[in-house]
Structures are given as structure tokens and as C-alpha cells.
Amino acid sequence: xxxxxxxxxxxxxxxxxxxxxxxxxxxxxxxxxxxxxxxxxxxxxxxxxxxxxxxxxxxxxxxxxxxxxxxxxxxxxxxxxxxxxxxxxxxxxxxxxxxxxxxxxxxxxxxxxxxxxxxxxxxxxxxxxxxxxxxxxxxxxxxxxxxxxxxxxxxxxxxxxxxxxxxxxxxxxxxxxxxxxxxxxxxxxxxxxxxxxxxxxxxxxxxxxxxxxxxxxxxxxxxxxxxxxxxxxxxxxxxxxxxxxxxxxxxxxxxxxxxxxxxx
Length: 264
Hints:
By secondary structure, this protein is an alpha/beta fold. Helix content is about 50%, strand content about 15%.
């Protein structure tokens, strides 16, 4: 299996899923620009990736919800690596509350980071690829929560559902230029963020939703992204691949019940 190109951008890559995606792309021969908002964490991640995988990991601080920051990202990426063939939109954040208590600032932050960030980076990537004649690949990170529902995560679920439909339109528009656009939809993945938020009881509730009896790992998502960015998937575009251990077959546990004490 070979990647469709040897240069990539991965957003939200200082830890968790994004870090694993960058690592897998590097293992398969890519140099990668990795982005995040925290410079210290990003620099450390890039140094570790480069030392481990023998390819270049170039750190660029970026707020994906800001058009100027995204333009700077692509300028830096082009200056460092040349033409960019692969974009992975993975930057994300999350808060948790029911709709009646959800702060407008939290709604804006989650929607802007996930949905607007995916739009801005995809827009920049399609423009970059079209003007250079690159038959590239874009992979967007969605979530099982786009197709399965729980209380407490309306903003996150709405953002991810929006990403799924955006992926379809982007694939339709990009296809005539040789650009494939797909998504991956993780279930619960063992990352620092999920470990910090989840109680033992919540973990047990999640386990009851699995068809494959284990929690997901960042590598599970990284392998799916690498496949979609490879010559093994040349006729796949406009889909969002569920990588969730079968959670969508049974449904999500109630986040409000387990993580928002006192919620009725």
C-alpha cells in the first residue's frame, strides 16, 4: 500500500488520534506538517515523530477556526514541503452540557473548531491542489455521535453531522479535479481527553455498546485514514467510514447520566 503523495498536513496532531495519524503517514513515507494551538506540546510531538519515524514532522501552530491562521499554515507547509497532497482535518475540542445549560461560548467554540475549521482547511487545500494540478486526498474526522445520539453533546454531535454532509459536497466538487474527500467516524478512543473525562462506570456503559469487545485506540483510526489516503482507495470518495467497534449498532450510553451529576 502506497500513499497518493509524500506530503501531508494533519491538524490537531500534538496528541491522541492526530498524533497517531501523523505517525502512520510517516511510516508510509510522508513528510508531515503537524498543527495544534499549543506550541510547546506541538514542538515536543514533532520532535518525537521525526526521531521515531525517520521522516520530517514540521510543527506549525494554527487555530483552524481562523482564516488568517489557516492561510499561514498552508504558506508554511508549502515553503517547508512543497506541494501538499494529503490533508487530515482532525482538530477538535469538546465540552459537555445539556441544551438548557449549554453556554453560547461553548457552542461557538465547538462548532467553530470542528465544522468551521474543517471548512477553512478544506477550502485552502482544494484551492492549493487545484492550482497545482495535484490529485490529492482530504480526510475529515467525524464521530459515531453524528449517527448515534446522547444527551449532553448537542454542539459536538451537530458539528460532526455537519462535517459528514460537508464531506459529501466537498467530494462532489473536488472529484472533477481529481481530489478525493472522505471521512472517518471514531467511536470512543482511548486518548488523554477521554481518559480524563470518563469514570469507571461510564467505561462499563461504553463497553456494553461494543460489538468488538474492546475500546478503540488511536492507531485504529490512523490505519483507516492511511487506507483512505492510499492507492488502495482510488475509487472511494464522499463516504464517512465508521470505525467504532460496532457502537452504532447498539447506540451510545447516556452522557448526561454518567458525566453530568444531577441531570434529570
